[in-house]
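Listing 4. Sequential folding, example run.
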Amino acid sequence: QVRLVESGGGLVQPGGSLRLSCVVSGTIFSRDVVGWFRQAPGKEREFVHALHWNGTTYTPDSVKGRFSISRDNAKKTVYLQINSLKPEDTAVYYCAATSRVYYSSTSYYRKTNYNYWGRGTQVTVSS
């Protein structure tokens, strides 16, 4: 069983930065992928970034250049760094994990392919 706890959200001005954390407890195997999704009010939950424990990253074109993902294996923590924040980045950010193996990288973009979820952390970008 895997448990995920997000933190680091808050209110930030446009142009600012945030680093979100996702602490992963439970057994993590080498094939597991930890991802970040976000959901704005009235919108579908969308994929933001993901990281395989072997170091492979999955990045949609929509966030390239502003979002980055990293991990601290000793702390079992995955980080999402968000720079140059915009009001449209306002959303609840969720951490998710999957131990399923997919041979297509875009499979990790689909929320239905993740079987563990955190409760989310709110990010609000406003002046």
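-- end of first protein; second protein begins --
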Amino acid sequence: QLQVVESGGGLVQPGGSLRLSCAASGFSLNFYAIGWFRQAPGKEREAVSCISSSGASTNYTDSVKGRFTISRDNAKNTVYLQMNSLKPEDTAVYFCAAERWWRATCPQRGNEYGYWGQGTQVTVSS
């Protein structure tokens, strides 16, 4: 069974850091683009970042540019989202999603991904 599993969420103070991991089981991430999405209470899901299957192309939503970094380690079958300078408005459930993707860029819309994890809670609060 193909699935992705997120980990690394938690409670952090404003200005702190967390690193989220998205690990694949049952398949190799080598040919898959990965997206990170988040959903805060009462809000719609939004795209946070994505990375192409090669890792050469990445994309970030404006609110996280300069603070978040997406990367992948295909040898470990894992994609990471390093989140620095966290703000209370970053509080949300974070999801990773995977899709087999041949293009040089990565898909930025949720409906372009077929495999989703269960999410990990990130809470930024003092």
